[in-house]
Amino acid sequence: MQNFAPFHPPQRLLLGPGPSNAAPSVLQSMSQPLLGHLDPLFVKMMEEIKVMLRSIFQTKNDLTFPISGTGSAGMEFCFVNLIEPGDEVIIGVNGVFGTRMCDVAERCGAKVTKVEAEWGCIIEADKVAEALKKVSKPKLVAIVHAETSTGALTPVEEISKLAHAAGALFLLDTVTSLGGCPVKLDEWGVDAVYSGTQKCLSAPPGLAPVSLSPRAMEVATKRKTKVQSWYLDVNLLASYWGQERVYHHTAPITMNYGLHEALRLVLEEGLEARWKRHEQSYLSLKKGLAEMGLSLASQEGHQLWQLNAVRVPEGVDEAAVRKSFLNDYSIEIGAGLGPMKGKIWRVGMMGENSTQKNVEIVLSTFKKTLGK
Question: Fewer CB atoms < 10 Å away: N or C end of the chain?
Fold first, then answer.
């Protein structure tokens, strides 16, 4: 039988679309001894995670907790709990993750109406209003706040008002926005939200923070049909994350340790200060790229601070540049997806990595690599 050596990953600077590098104290927290998932001390920590998530999501929603799974599990959680076969759903599609929302909703039996925008552009509120007029009884309007595949940030307050005026719930994907730019659930009237740990929260991937408003919870608890996923059924999960502590599944203990520390660091820095840090990194990177003759492909005025879609110059082999970043400098940047494949590099300045030092490293590496 073949013997395998222990795996020792190299040190990489992760400046792609995610994951980002975790804070050292987050990784250290994950090396602590295991507790049982019903241990009173672990349960106490779970409560602290819920309190910190409410603060970072800017909400009073009681049901705010991390799903055991990545951000895509958070997406499925929201749809499988709120959608029943035949429900009419409106989804904004301006990139990969809006497209994925449609797939998940259709698997739940929803009748999906797409509001599409060119990749790199935002979903316009007036287009959502038009779609709502064509749908007889909309159950849900879903938008990707920060589209990771294109670097576009869609304003959602007006869309939320339109959804509620039509009697629909409003669902928001904040996988890339949470912790990196303003996310204000209660102020914006968001009924359901999901995120991920590996972007601006700077923890390893593996958990998906979610939150449901009382209105959304009422929809989930008064369903006519069973939730199609046992694992993601909020009616069962609420008993584990609520006061009853009824056994549901074995939570990923060390992942929750890491998330607890990551959330603690976010609140220690302060949300406003953290958002400002991401904005400053974006402005500095954009300025430096412009001085090199490079620009961002996402819509002006709606560009993500934490994920920059850098246009590939004519005649440049974008894959060769990424390969040089990784092999020569141990830096990861991302490729474009879908219609933007081969046309952009996705440069993430997220969480722990959103610093002036890393901006300078990226600019310097582009100069060296493109100079070849």
Answer: N
Say yes or no to pLDDT of 96 above 80: yes
Check if the beta carbon of residue 101 is closer than 8 Å to that of residue 91. Answer: yes
Cα(182)–Cα(171) distance, integer angstroms: 16
> Are the beta carbons of 210 and 180 closer than 8 angstroms?
no
pLDDT at 134 over 80: yes
User: Do 95 and 156 sit in the same domain of this protein?
Assistant: yes
- Express as a percent the part of the chain with pLDDT over 90: 96
Domain extent for 233: 24-267
pLDDT of residue 168: 98
Whether cis (ω within 30° of 0) applies to the bond prior to 9 is no
- Same domain membership, residue 193 and residue 109: yes
Q: Is 167 exposed, middle or buried (0-12, 13-18, 19+ CB in 10 A)?
A: exposed
- Let me know whether 263 and 275 are in one domain: no
Q: What distance in Å separates the CA atoms of residue 259 and residue 210, rounded to the nearest whole number?
A: 13
Question: pLDDT averaged over the chain?
Answer: 97
Q: Which of 339, 334, 327, 336 is nearest to 368 (CA)?
A: 327
